[in-house]
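Service request form, structural biology core

Requester: graduate student, group of Dr. S.
Request type: structure prediction, single chain
Budget code: on file
Notes: please return the result as structure tokens.

Sequence provided:
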Amino acid sequence: MAVRKTSVDKEVLGAEEGPPKIVRVSQNGNGQFKSITEAINSIPHGNTKRIIVYIAGGTYNEKVMINRTKPFVTLFGEPGNKPNLTYNGNAKRFGTVDSTALQYGTVDSASLIVESDYFVAANLIISNSAPMPDGKRKGAQAVAMRISGDKAAFYGCTFLGFQDTICDDRGYHFFKDCTIQGTVDFIFGSGKSLYLMQNTRLNVVESIIGGGMIAAHAGKSVTEDTGYSFVQCEVIGNAKGAFLGRAWMTSPKVVYAYTTMGTVVDPLGWSHNNHPERANTVYFGEYKNKGVGSDAKGRAHFTKQLSDSEARPFISLAYIQASKWLLPPPKV
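Core staff response, request fulfilled:
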């Protein structure tokens, strides 16, 4: 931090000055709180200092919301014994708030919703335990996490779901050494995010309704400064004919670089989502990938094998302006 004082956001300098406050969550009573929600509720609105919520191993059946008025929160799972934050909400399911029935909708079905900035998560399992969509039940999509805050980082986390596992909603986000599991559109939204390193695995699970789809970036204009970049990742799974991405909206931007792709990937690689006109507005790129699923022969005509200069912006931490905010995971 001393070296980077001239480059990081002034808010980060203030928040990281001095030792962070640590609150502990343990279901056996060995912490200040027995639930993650109680710990989040203890954080004051307008918080300006880093607060680490240390979570002991166990399964936490909670629907957790971190409001935008609570920045600089870190959820840190017990090393070697990752806690599982889970809930079984889906888009159709009704819940209750103050005894009033409500319908979640897709993005609010998430087990963990983060709307605040400068969020960090490490050593966590974040899952949605709702059953796999079968193509018959309406509103069966179920989100594990929605990240809507800016400048968030995830280290060594596992995200488990089926359709719509991660709503990578908006803002700069960094995922390192994570496993993300799903069936259809299991990374979707309008974020600008970097998914990095060989220990980041994209696991495409065989769906009841067949196929598979990793990324559904929601770009709506070729001038938008958003997109998903997957660098040194691994695409695995037991699905058949999975696509790396689809044109959910008119102008998605998705790039895979230095990534190992298994037989799970369909030779076409990408889908225009039954909108042939979107072939003119998508940005689907690949760069120096390997594995049987990376063969450029047979790729959809609207995809691009990137040159060195074209790939360079997507394979640097500068893609998410990381020098202004990104810090390594804490040691607790």
